[in-house]
């Protein structure tokens, strides 16, 4: 969510994720997916651009690390952040500066767009289904009650329907639609297919989570399916895996779930929502990319709830 503008008495919250998502040249980086076409990346100057961006990011991480090293000389233990702890454990775990930069990169890449994309899709699905929006809103407003305060973390465990909304959003729109690639170092057979050693295998969570053999009315947004099925985020039977599975599963899951829920709950608690008057039908198309961004940024009009 990047912008909020006042449109004459009403606030229009523009939910954007597009600005920070991959620029077009990254989408056209062929080598990663089709090594045989790698030569074309040089023609489109893709390699040069990737190198420039890597250098920029590297310089930024260097600066962060240096700042933290000098800051640490003055600071007490209670104020340490993630990078402070990584630096502190550097000797004990024998981590190089490159290891630390790689970990920072993981957190930046894995943890920035994903919650924003989830929130945007949840709001898009809810605006398309006013009854579902109303049900979620009533639950949030009932749980928070008359307290003047906004939805807080303690309320998250009580908003069960909102959790179903979140699960259904992540089923239809997993922000990382293709899970991290797996490589088997020996010849393997999966589902009758021969996978030669050192082949990179991508798991398409997006397709699995919309498979009509696994899901009733697979293309429809029906949060209620999760209130009866009791399916967890942790991919027990490999049909629901928005946070991945196995050793490469998301490290940020337990942190991001309450954060995303709190943001959506606050949006539902404080505002009623509608489409801008010039939008008749919401475009629910996705960009064909590793991240399931919407084709268009979501623009919604919020009306401050006075009750
Ligand atoms: C709604 C929010 C999020 C979703 C849906 C999500 C989803 C995922 C998925 C699908 C993977 C790949 C797992 C696999 O291939 O098996 C992943 C990896 C990862 N996620 Fe998340 N993620 C979210 C938020 C976050 C946050 C907030 C952080 C950090 C603060 C984070 C950190 C990571 C890291 C570090 C990895 C890489 C793990 C590895 O390299 O082995 N994620 N995430």
From TrEMBL:
It is found in: Membrane. It is a single-pass membrane protein. GO terms for cellular component: membrane. Its main location: membrane. InterPro entries: Cyt_P450, Cyt_P450_E_grp-I, Cyt_P450_sf, Cytochrome_P450_71. Its cofactor is heme. This is Cytochrome P450. The lineage of its organism: Eukaryota, Viridiplantae, Streptophyta, Embryophyta, Tracheophyta.
């Amino acid at each position: 969510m990047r912008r909020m503008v006042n449109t004459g008495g009403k606030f229009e919250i523009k939910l954007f994720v597009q600005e920070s998502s991959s620029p077009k040249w990254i989408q056209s980086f062929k080598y990663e997916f089709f090594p045989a076409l790698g030569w074309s990346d040089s023609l489109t100057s893709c390699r040069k651009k990737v190198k420039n961006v890597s250098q920029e990011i590297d310089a930024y991480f260097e600066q962060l690390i240096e700042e933290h090293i000098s800051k640490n000389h003055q600071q007490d233990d209670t104020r340490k952040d993630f990078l402070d702890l990584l630096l502190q454990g550097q000797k004990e775990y024998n981590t190089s500066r490159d290891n630390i930069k790689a970990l920072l990169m993981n957190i930046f890449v894995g943890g920035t767009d994903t919650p924003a994309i989830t929130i945007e899709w949840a709001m898009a699905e809810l605006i398309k289904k006013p009854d579902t929006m109303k049900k979620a809103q009533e639950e949030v407003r009932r749980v928070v009650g008359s307290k003047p305060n906004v939805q807080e973390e303690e309320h998250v465990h009580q908003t069960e329907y909102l959790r179903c909304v979140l699960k259904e959003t992540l089923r239809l729109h997993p922000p990382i639609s293709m899970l991290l690639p797996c490589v088997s170092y020996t010849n393997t057979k999966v589902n009758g297919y021969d996978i030669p050693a050192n082949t990179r295998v991508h798991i398409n969570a997006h397709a699995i989570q919309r498979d009509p053999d696994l899901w009733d009315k697979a293309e429809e947004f029906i949060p209620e399916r999760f209130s009866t099925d009791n399916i967890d985020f942790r991919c027990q039977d490999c049909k629901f895996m928005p946070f991945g599975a196995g050793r490469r599963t998301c490290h940020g899951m337990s942190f991001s779930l309450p954060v995303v829920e709190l943001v959506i709950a606050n949006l539902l608690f404080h505002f009623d929502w509608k489409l801008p008057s010039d939008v008749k039908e919401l475009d629910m198309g996705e960009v064909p990319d590793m991240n399931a961004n919407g084709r268009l940024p979501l623009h919604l009009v919020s009306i401050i709830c006075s009750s």
